[in-house]
């Protein structure tokens, strides 16, 4: 069950395989390599490539992961494992932003997977999609029916 797909820093396409608990890499020639995730039941969904790594959200495990083009996955547990991370957007500095659907918030992780920022929304906002604008501000699609535009100093 492929969920989402992104163009990687290596010229290949990368996608989450939600029910297979894996990440797949697809070359332009159509060759597919599957990378199983270390955590059982991780259920990866959102995925987005940065300059050096591909970030993904593990909705079933309450974690965020990244994988480098050679296929080494790394996982980072979030403080609230029931937060249901859904969408991810890679940042220019090597970190990422992640929507936490069940926690009604958005978090920022640095390139080493450490939590650096969090923005909370009212209960029921259900943050789902996320994107970074060219100026690195964050846009979040809330299933409650609105968009949120987040700006941070620096």
Q: What's the quick description here?
A:
By secondary structure, the chain is mostly beta strands.
Structure description:
The protein has 154 residues and is mainly β. The chain has strands at 2-7, 13-17, 22-26, 32-36, 44-49, 54-58, 63-67, 73-77, 85-90, 96-100, 105-109, 115-120, 127-132, 138-142, 146-150. The strands form 4 sheets. The chain has a 4-stranded antiparallel beta sheet, with no helix packed on it. The protein has a 4-stranded antiparallel beta sheet with strand order 5-6-7-8, with no helix packed on it. A hairpin with a 5-residue loop joins strand 1 and strand 2.
Work out the helicity level. Answer: under 10%
Tell me the CATH topology. Methylamine Dehydrogenase, Chain H
Terminus-to-terminus distance: 39 Å
Question: What order do the helices and strands follow?
Answer: EEEEEEEEEEEEEEE
Overall geometric form: globular
Major pleated sheet: 4 strands, antiparallel
- Unreliable residue runs: none
- SSE-based structural type: mainly beta
């Amino acid at each position: 069950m492929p969920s989402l797909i992104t163009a990687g820093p290596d010229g290949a396409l990368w996608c989450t395989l939600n029910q297979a608990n894996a990440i797949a890499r697809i070359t332009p020639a159509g060759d597919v390599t599957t990378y199983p995730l270390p955590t059982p039941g991780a259920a990866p969904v959102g995925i987005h490539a940065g300059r050096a790594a591909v970030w993904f959200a593990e909705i079933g495990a309450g974690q965020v992961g990244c994988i480098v083009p050679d296929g080494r996955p790394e996982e980072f547990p979030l403080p609230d494992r029931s937060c249901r991370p859904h969408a991810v957007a890679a940042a220019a500095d090597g970190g990422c932003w992640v929507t936490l659907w069940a926690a009604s918030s958005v978090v920022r992780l640095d390139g080493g997977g450490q939590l650096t920022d969090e923005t909370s929304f009212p209960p029921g906002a259900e943050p789902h999609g996320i994107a970074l604008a060219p100026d690195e501000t964050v846009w979040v699609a809330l299933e409650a029916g609105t968009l949120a535009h987040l700006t941070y100093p620096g």
